[in-house]
């Protein structure tokens, strides 16, 4: 059997996303609006399969064919008859549920491959003897032959997502290196093109020179007679002695489905902001225009307090090894009014709270653009995973001048981040009851501060294409050096493009640090309803949770490549290192032996030193993070951040050794079962499913009732069209023979 790092356990937690009451309160028109947005999101989410691994679309198609022909209970009878044990069949169900939940065969949180926890030959017997095989023998056999080996392979390069020799990714062709990624980013910057909706494909011409294709995601192809801001960019270029070609049409048939439902949603929009937002999204996905998506995002920001909230597009860049390309995601949710009222009070206090952050006023935005901040009950979240909160859009220029929105996903927090006392690891016994009692409330506070005042704070110093600065270079002083500002963002440069591989994690660390720092403020805690001893317990558990998370983060570090696979967890490890460095016994991490005789560890936080020792240490660190971000000081920022992110076996913590202990005692992230919506006549019905691997599979089997088989053909055709980009030279030669 495979290493436990690369399997999902049979007892993995599975929870349902409860939004029944919030959906019930929607009007018929609001339900229709939510339904079509959900359909657009679910269709678009299929592109994540093509953004993850070469084999993911085939695995998805194979599983979907299997479970469409026989539901999990029916297939179970067949599997047992083929000689599988109950445990082996459950392992297969968990694997299938994992593929659907992560939209691929790599974990969305950690980017680690997971494989079926049963013998390959047994799974082959189930597949080749299935009802689906009887119905579509050639298709099922071809799918298995294409993905069977890769489904189980744990060849070193295939264990993690990454670039070049470090892993596998389909954001870049298989022969691309980090140097190619940097060159492509320089090219994109030179043409004022965003990387968010692109992939990069590299081929070698007859003279042995590399040729790069930058492919935009769009419904239209390069040769379509349609004039937009994108069409003038669709041509060949020579750049720094290299040939580049900008094309479009990536994911075209899938995005066509997205566009169709966005068009339908427009008929049920509540106001002109929503109508114009959807029109620009349609333009963006049709033409391949990030500028159109920005325009749509402007209307989205202006759409204050909608009953049905949503966002869709190529959004988060966590899984791009270079940190610039966005993974597709789309969500639809309804407002939770009680928690939203607390967030509104936090927004009302934001300008005052921003003044408490440890950097000079010049390093803060010129004007705080009051954002929406709502607690939402998610109806649909399509993509590779579901976060606890979101601060979007990610476009730096919009965030600086137009503002942003914050959302806390209440029904996700309610199920995804709860831990049973008996499963709590690495805490002292006397902390466990307190932690269990206050983790949820403290996490509400942390998410609120993280999203609103973490991601929502700070200014980027920039000079536009006309040479105009957004700060006074004569008077603004760098508080770390006492000198004038010597670096800033030039026209076309963004936070992601400059800080690339560390941008996401660095920003998450900054936001987490702001949350810890400001949770010490009594006004903040009073907004959330905590005073006196309760407030002190919330502070303690919030800091303790961050310290424990820093230790748990070691699961997502790869010693062989000396790199991190998850931005949020790297950020939490960095904060742990900062607090350990503060000394004076504020935080200790001690290896121990558990009651089962196996290695264990304990984290301790001295609650009496949080303010006297922890706060000053966090203040110094946070100021340095912000100054380097504001000034675009990549060299300084990298040195600071990568220094704290280094994992060594230096005493007393010996983190490399502790990593083995963390892996030994890790608990897999829960799988989340989401409902479907179905249009019956003019009414929208909510379809719910049980909290089990089988329930999650059923939710996907019923997700595309009209065109499931057609979508699977489309996905495999798209994957096959580009398959040559991930074949080894030997495979490519044999394929040409």
- Terminal CA distance reads 36 Å
Radius of gyration computed on alpha carbons = 25 Å
Output the structural class.
Answer: alpha+beta
* Number of strand segments: 17
Low-confidence stretches: 729-737
Give the averaged pLDDT, no decimals: 94
Q: Tell me the quaternary state.
A: single chain
Our count of helices gives: 28
Overall geometry = globular
GO molecular function: aminopeptidase activity; dipeptidyl-peptidase activity; metalloexopeptidase activity; zinc ion binding
Keywords: Acetylation, Aminopeptidase, Cytoplasm, Hydrolase, Metal-binding, Metalloprotease, Protease, Zinc
Family: Belongs to the peptidase M49 family.
EC number: 3.4.14.4
Keyphrases for this structure?
alpha+beta, single chain, hydrolase, zinc, Dipeptidyl-peptase3, four-stranded mixed beta sheet, five-stranded mixed beta sheet
Description:
The protein is α+β, with helices and mostly antiparallel strands and 737 residues long. 48% of the residues lie in helices and 14% in strands. The chain contains 28 helices and 17 strands. The strands form six sheets. The protein has a five-stranded mixed β-sheet with strand order 6-7-8-10-9. A four-stranded mixed β-sheet has the order 2-3-5-4. Strands 1-15 form a two-stranded parallel sheet. The longest helix has 26 residues.
List the helices and strands and how they pair.
Blueprint: E1 14-16, H1 20-24, H2 28-45, H3 47-52, H4 56-69, H5 72-81, H6 86-102, H7 120-128, H8 131-135, H9 137-152, H10 178-190, E2 198-204, E3 210-217, E4 236-239, E5 242-250, H11 252-266, H12 272-287, H13 290-302, E6 308-316, E7 327-336, H14 337-348, H15 350-354, E8 372-382, E9 389-392, H16 396-401, E10 405-409, H17 410-416, H18 429-454, H19 495-518, H20 522-527, H21 532-552, E11 557-558, E12 563-564, H22 567-581, E13 587-593, E14 599-605, H23 610-630, H24 634-645, H25 655-664, E15 671-673, E16 676-680, E17 683-687, H26 693-701, H27 708-721, H28 729-736
Helix pairs in contact: 2-11, 4-9, 4-27, 6-26, 7-9, 11-12, 12-13, 18-19, 18-21, 19-22, 19-23, 19-24, 21-22, 22-23, 23-24
